[in-house]
């Protein structure tokens, strides 16, 4: 049985619709819920950027690095900014896709509790088949669940994209698109990442606040 309802999910999120299947639930903003759960421990702070590379989407720093690699091309910061946004916008659906894929929990056909119960009942083949197949959703229910998750993720991403695209887009893939646009080959986290960071005027503001709070 699959349905959608306003509930408090297992991560403590009261604001989002969750998809409920049996005794489990999956938030439409599972990443946000995991972040909330981690931060509630008091020993973990979740950064705003999706990846470390999101902090490297700095037009000025990227302009300097790209110019050093493409001395034959008069690269301007405005062009860098335009390319970053175009590549990020092209990845918006990928953000939705990855969010939905992350919410599709693997189906556990067997666990210790079921194994123990079947053993205690001295279940035969029919008993095993009945217990295991009962854990499977029908194709119709599964399709509805995925469509619901997609719709919720798409709405969430679309509504926040204008303001938050820099943190929502996969930073490494954005940088890879920038590198390809300027004919620089593949982006290297190990080589290119430090070069960009070295050209930045300062550390990202939210990381400064986080580290300052940590050191108090």
Task: Describe the structure using short key phrases.
216 residues, mainly alpha, three-stranded antiparallel beta sheet, 10 helices, 58% helix, elongated, disordered N terminus
DSSP helical segment count? 10
Quickly give the structural class: mainly alpha
Largest sheet: 3 strands, antiparallel
Spatial gap, N to C terminus: 50 Å
Oligomer: single chain
Which segments are poorly predicted (pLDDT under 50) over 5 or more consecutive residues? 1-29
Mean pLDDT: 83
Outline type? elongated
Q: H/E order of the elements? A: EEEHHHHHHHHHH
Can you list the strand order of the major beta sheet? 1-2-3
- Please state the CA-atom Rg, rounded to the nearest Å: 23 Å
Total strands: the figure is 3
Helix content class: 55-70%
Q: How much beta, percentage-wise? A: 5-15%
Summarize the structure in short.
Helix content is 58%, strand content 6%. With 216 residues, the chain is mainly alpha-helical.
Characterization of the model:
The chain is mainly alpha-helical and 216 residues long. It has ten helices and three strands. Strands 1-2-3 form a three-stranded antiparallel sheet. The N and C termini lie far apart (50 Å).
Task: Produce the secondary structure layout.
Blueprint: E1 2-6, E2 17-21, E3 24-27, H1 30-39, H2 59-69, H3 77-90, H4 92-103, H5 112-120, H6 125-133, H7 139-168, H8 171-181, H9 192-199, H10 205-215
Antiparallel strand pairs: 1-2, 2-3
Helix pairs in contact: 2-3, 2-9, 3-8, 4-7
